[in-house]
Fold these 2 entries.
Entry 1:
Amino acid sequence: MDTVHRATEPVGYSLPLSPSGLSSMITPPPWHFTGDVVMVDYRVDPAAAERFLPPGLSLGADPGAAAAVFADWQWCSDSGAELAEPARCQFGEFLIFLACEYRGAPMARCPYAWVDQPVPMARGWIQGMPKQLGVVHQTRPRPLGRAGAALTSGTRFDGVLSVFGHRTARAGVTLTERTEVRPALHDVPLAHTRLFPGWLPGEKPLADLVASEVTDVEFGEIWTGEATLELSAEGMDQDFASLAPVEVGAGHVFSYAETLRGGRLLD
Amino acid sequence: MDTVHRATEPVGYSLPLSPSGLSSMITPPPWHFTGDVVMVDYRVDPAAAERFLPPGLSLGADPGAAAAVFADWQWCSDSGAELAEPARCQFGEFLIFLACEYRGAPMARCPYAWVDQPVPMARGWIQGMPKQLGVVHQTRPRPLGRAGAALTSGTRFDGVLSVFGHRTARAGVTLTERTEVRPALHDVPLAHTRLFPGWLPGEKPLADLVASEVTDVEFGEIWTGEATLELSAEGMDQDFASLAPVEVGAGHVFSYAETLRGGRLLD
Amino acid sequence: MDTVHRATEPVGYSLPLSPSGLSSMITPPPWHFTGDVVMVDYRVDPAAAERFLPPGLSLGADPGAAAAVFADWQWCSDSGAELAEPARCQFGEFLIFLACEYRGAPMARCPYAWVDQPVPMARGWIQGMPKQLGVVHQTRPRPLGRAGAALTSGTRFDGVLSVFGHRTARAGVTLTERTEVRPALHDVPLAHTRLFPGWLPGEKPLADLVASEVTDVEFGEIWTGEATLELSAEGMDQDFASLAPVEVGAGHVFSYAETLRGGRLLD
Amino acid sequence: MDTVHRATEPVGYSLPLSPSGLSSMITPPPWHFTGDVVMVDYRVDPAAAERFLPPGLSLGADPGAAAAVFADWQWCSDSGAELAEPARCQFGEFLIFLACEYRGAPMARCPYAWVDQPVPMARGWIQGMPKQLGVVHQTRPRPLGRAGAALTSGTRFDGVLSVFGHRTARAGVTLTERTEVRPALHDVPLAHTRLFPGWLPGEKPLADLVASEVTDVEFGEIWTGEATLELSAEGMDQDFASLAPVEVGAGHVFSYAETLRGGRLLD
């Protein structure tokens, strides 16, 4: 049998496997991120939020606290090689965060997430972040001109998400003042469920409750302001609709960086 | 602890998990497909092909046989609900197939695949098909007019793939005659490696050699013809480049349907 | 002055001008088209329709008659060269037609149009068809499999349009029977206003009322059926909203080809 | 005839015309722009450059001087309304500039341009800028983190353009120092040919040599550095290929704002 002559088998951190491993769509962590964030605090029905929490997580000290987050990212692996390819190293993202608690420690649960590039989508599934593909646009700081968006009182930052051609989310933040306070739900660990769906007869899915391990967090200037938020149920299901805002709180605009190193098992 | 009051936990065949399971990005199999195919047989260096085969698979009776396949698909779950959403139920695909053998049975190995929609990409990862996101266009049969593409001798069908803005593949088939012979590499089972990358400290990836279970195969009119094929290494790695055509064979244009029901473990 | 030495100046049917003229984005007419159409007859408020008609056009014999048309096209110039490039020669389109009359002759006016490729958009502006860029998807005939869409009684064909991430139009046709009757608003000349906006100080725009000159019309099998149609004003203006359906009529599914040769001046 | 009862006719600065004029795809100038620019000076064969100049323009004092410009823009009309819609008010652009002269005044000619949004494409055609649709990505300044791109010596900024799935242009600038010197070809008026192609029998195209009228120019920090530039002829014509770099000069990274107010006729 000819296979006995092979010194190697195809390898890779992810598919596609290939002789050298270079074809792997995903590079192994750590992954370094830097981005501009437009974030809106809001509140959902606590009972609705609770239905999104797996065993092990509870609503915690502030039931119903939630956030909608637009972020415009640039990322790279340890080699930094991706940075030379702006078509690969940039993506837009929209996330929903729900406040929760694990063994008394405050965390955030991400029930829905959309990105506009396939690599971060696939990376989401590896870590348990439920990233789908959508169309994301947001205002970024731009210092010059009448069409600019300076980081100053009165400037408005917007974010919009479309999913399969439906306008699904829209957020707006009009800056009022600079602050040193980090937005609460952007400053706690994320608790995800890693899930590998079953495919073989009778197979149960692999499902782990994990927390993301993040280092090298940096916040740039943090601005706060008045916010608006609309989530549309058109084209979405009743579960997404159950997380509609019952109250909209403050908005936050800031730049941010972190390194995502892997996960640790909860429970 | 509040979680004891919950009657349910979030569920779903895939992420995102949600109270009812409706938010799952992927519906459970079976998945029904119907498509138009433009396919080109070609040959690669057998030693290069072998380096893409995992233990358990060998080159088989025709070492170096390969095919490049463009397909324009429509799909649905058992409910058929997706068919009402043309933005969701259609996608384009480009595949490479390598001839191989498992315990004496001819099979095909798919070392590279690109689709232009996220749902088939994620579905690929569940079954072990290494689908990435690309831009795919191909000629489809069109009976009318000077701009048409009738299924008749002399008509040319083309397919093009771009990946991150690089033209990666181009195939052309000029029809010569109708045939009853099914293209060999489109008529054997596929042997995939299901891979769930490691994320936890020291974790080994889940990796299974599996075969796809397909039923309800239908071929429409099959046309054969003269073919061209170019695979470009620009923007790709040396592993992809090692599968460049050393010889180009016949082309095939046909419509095709199948139902993909799940996988079975090999070994 | 060096320019006196030049034998040539840059040329082209359209921009970009270049030494040989090969860089012109648009090839000169005639342009040949072949496509699959999903069309829904409907009625609008006749007064609203009339406000979209320029002097010279009147509502005609059937005030308020309108149609929404999804079409999936392939096109080429006389050379046919574009057909070898499936990324260039295909596009999706959504049109609204309003019934009207010019000097007693029935015509159609297209107040709104969207395509998903830049070449047909620019070509629209040359002929006076108000084409913008949108995301268009529609069901095409597919004979095989459970996910197919056979041209037979009971099959449903859908079309969807999204504009800047808003779902703007949705049509559905469930086939009931084959017919020989050509859909009325797809079988009359189109009356457009060619408009070249002013740019120089005090310049008045060039504006001509023209009719499109079409030859080599072919209809394939025509199927009729029950239809639904929704036009959404979300993200659109009050003028678009004024053409909302007050009644939805029959649907039509057919393939079609034509050659567009240029325009003739009306008035 | 019913048209005598109409008080109004459909209006608009551009197509689509509509009762109120609100449907016009393009708002009338002025248009305000703010952007981040990655620019590379280079040299082309002067004879090739000259073949792109219409009568009235000559090569001027520095024959063969050229520049490749990637820009990431945000724009708005006088109302500023577009700024609330990040999906509408942002676009990426790639331009080529050729040095030229009009009656002794230095100007720039833009033989090729690509943008990634339809509104700036159509606006280009109104002013005579030959904008086509492409896929544009570029590095923007990002102050934080290992994946960042700080405005400091040693940071690299890249830009890539793809057209119909071919990688057409790639530029890179590695910053060396801050400067007060404005890049020459980004600081002169642009001379365009406004062109409205013929459509009626025997019609000659409208063609005017015009200069753009720009006010409110602002430059942010200007950084200069070492540059690379590749233009690929794959998928392009011989005219584009004739402008390939024969020498690559300095690179520039800066932010920039301007207001475009209209055009004035040359000659």
Entry 2:
Amino acid sequence: MLSDLDIAQQANLKPVEEIANQLGLEEHEWEPYGKDKAKVNLDVMERLKDHKDGRVVLVTSINPTRAGEGKSTVTVGLAQALRARNQDVSVALREPSLGPVMGIKGGATGGGYSQVVPMESINLHFTGDIHAITTANNALSAFIDNHIFQGNTCEIDTRRISWKRVVDLNDRALRDVVVGLGGPKQGVPREDGFNITVASEIMAVLCLATSLADLKERLARMVVAYRADETPVTVKDLGYEGALTLLLKEAFKPNLVQTIEGVPAFIHGGPFANIAHGCNSLIATKMASKLSDYTITEAGFGADLGAEKFLNIKARIGDIHPDAVVIVATLRALKLHGGVAEADLKEENVEAIKRGLVNLEKHMETIEAFGLPFVVALNQFDTDTEKELEYFKNYCEQSDVDYSLTTVWADGGQGGLDLADQVIKTVESNESNFNPLYPLDLTLEKKIETVAKRVYGASGVELTKEAKAQCEAFEKNDWGHLPVCMAKTQYSLSDDPTALGRPRDFTITIRELRPSVGAGFIVVLTGDVLTMPGLPKQPAALKMDVDDDGEALGLF
Amino acid sequence: MLSDLDIAQQANLKPVEEIANQLGLEEHEWEPYGKDKAKVNLDVMERLKDHKDGRVVLVTSINPTRAGEGKSTVTVGLAQALRARNQDVSVALREPSLGPVMGIKGGATGGGYSQVVPMESINLHFTGDIHAITTANNALSAFIDNHIFQGNTCEIDTRRISWKRVVDLNDRALRDVVVGLGGPKQGVPREDGFNITVASEIMAVLCLATSLADLKERLARMVVAYRADETPVTVKDLGYEGALTLLLKEAFKPNLVQTIEGVPAFIHGGPFANIAHGCNSLIATKMASKLSDYTITEAGFGADLGAEKFLNIKARIGDIHPDAVVIVATLRALKLHGGVAEADLKEENVEAIKRGLVNLEKHMETIEAFGLPFVVALNQFDTDTEKELEYFKNYCEQSDVDYSLTTVWADGGQGGLDLADQVIKTVESNESNFNPLYPLDLTLEKKIETVAKRVYGASGVELTKEAKAQCEAFEKNDWGHLPVCMAKTQYSLSDDPTALGRPRDFTITIRELRPSVGAGFIVVLTGDVLTMPGLPKQPAALKMDVDDDGEALGLF
């Protein structure tokens, strides 16, 4: 069988100029990065500011297995299918982080005949956006330590520096470090730690800024540390918002590539979906929707995390009104939720699917709670049996659920034609009545409770003493009006990763809050959140190489 | 007065396609990065492999002041002047590191009307090469720590890990750190440190590799640590040379931009000139010389460091035969060498110039020792007086030294026409009889002695006990055949930065040797070498910003 990389390398890419022309971009509105990538200037938003936004379709999923349910693949496949149905369509996706690529995943650009290309470039450095974010993040760390070294006029308490350094790698040895060692000429010793770059607040800021001016304001608002009296110190206090904006101004321009069937693809930004909101950049989604009748976009993990944040955070900030949602499910994941062990997911088990459908049901209710119509897309695998598929179809028909079986990995757009038809029907019947789940003037605690009850199905929330104190302190700092960004396990609707299916009668424990004032949300931690992954015993990198023609080997 | 950034932003850039066409590049041989930058594929080297190399002119200088003597400016100005004299010419320069740009320098792409453009992009991220090197360097660190964490089958002694992490920033707090803290799930605690990226061995490797295959072999040979028995552990032992090559394959392609007067400029690679060899990439110099009749290139710091290494290391590996050398001097630097304090360099002082010329004399002797003809270029400043200039001219004429007064900062190529004429005359009289100063089969100690005596004018060298032991150990490891890469202060011919002019009767103390087996040289430390700069009290970054049109502010 061909690998994703084989398929990508055999693809016949159009020159990016052709993709730009498809979108109606004027020549001065984009710049090439290689022959198959471009950055689109923000001027286009000015030219089209009175232009009506196209339709936006959000792709989400049920609670995923460890392998993921193929949301990106379905997103690309659906767009290709809409194109085959003569629709004017773009996709907007996140850009992959190098850490997981070198660690386990090998690549993260969809799969098979529903992927974005040039696959190897997108997975490796791409147009340098993530490197620019790494640099800006670490420049800020250097500025903070230099500020302290040079006299500390802002009176930063070195035990209360919340800003961490980053690398775009999986590197567990950097989770907890001590910096500034070596004596009085080398700085001031203090505890520090590194996150993976996609967990940097700067990534979230870049992904939620609505303009370059807004980017600078958000960067200025970022809290980096506290004084001994616990008052916050911001980037603006230090005076570096201009330099950070300068370092990020090219990275802020959306990247334009194509799907393997030539659909325009905006690949831009990729914040974590736990301590951040897990969606591609707002500016890319808005740009795509200005330039296309349909924009297909996705959000990380399941609907309880990615979609909730897309709808309560990103859509609200960006004034985005989604027209429909696609909920991706796989029989594998349904079996997992029905109690089957991960090793046995390939075996036929209709009973398990029957039990596991409760997970899908909850996510459907959630999307309805946001006032949005949806289609369930079953992303088919070779191991799915006739009996299982039959059961699934019957279930949907009896429950009056719009659904579609898709084979977009193997068949590209042709494998998603029925899904495209369902989506068109849904969108054209104009059932969207979108509203965020909570108003911003609720207290932080009430916002948390709303998400826990209405999205997770919890009976309530319990805040630790520390979290309660933080709620109070944050309201005092005038951060109470911000939306909440929940950091929760992606495997369960609850905060217990082993509670699969549809857990009931549970409470969510809130352990800690972290302000992302620049990004514009308060992160709410319900358990341990890993912001720096580690490498496995045999990293994917061990198989990577370059052939004699300079082509990549070992990305999957 | 206009700043460098003002001048650069007012420049009327040609589309990079036009520059590529000037060089005779075929369409498939280059890829655009924006409208004014390109990467040139290595295919062109294959097409032109039987093509005779053009002429190579190396620009170096006397021992510099803290501000530098304008080598890059003269390099660009000379190329522009040669173009004005209807010569087919390219420049090959180093790419700037962000650390100094954000710290003190603001920018490093020549100056005035003799600079390379787009100035702001070249100074900020450019085509991402340095970020790729940062990533590859730190991926290797993560692989090393993961190897140890996962069982350490290579038996790395965690107290003997020589590979350090890097950031492309000035960040003194990272010079000495402890990583791997946080308990048994977070790694193995150990001492570590960060260098600035341009001090990474990978930068030197990229700048000395002759092909992609050679790049991989050099990466494989890099020593990262030692076992308890002091035997070296290499990248090949760990198995990551393929992944590192994959991460670097785009960065290895030379970047093509233009000078402000439209001369093709290859800006590629920028290793430190102390613990590395301080020249742009060998592949860029070779490519430029395949594509142009004249290639003007430079080497870091004064002739005692940059030129010595260009000639003994880079030229030898790359089979480059320079045709002439330009030695840049300024009256400011001559006055400094004549005993004037830095604060008083703007005041007329003919006597000091007279005394300071001994420094220039030594560098002229050195270039002659390599068998190379030279022209002295006096890079003029507003503060130079008639009397001073007259004295300098008389000196050159009486000593029978080819020289030229240049005003390329203010006048571009027109300010270097006489220099161009001198260079053409020198090159066409075909006086080059280039030879490295030592054969590779000398012992390390003899090589060091040769450089110290013939380049620095020392009476001898003294090795510390530690350095002596390292010499022996390195010969035992079969590294004795490598050239030496001297790390010495740039301010003096000796190892004492305060010994200006032409010190005599001094010995050079060799404190330590460090193997850069992948790069292919042994670093020889004569004093403290700073591989991670710090930021000043008021970093240049404090003045940086972006205007309403997204244009850079505050780069100088």
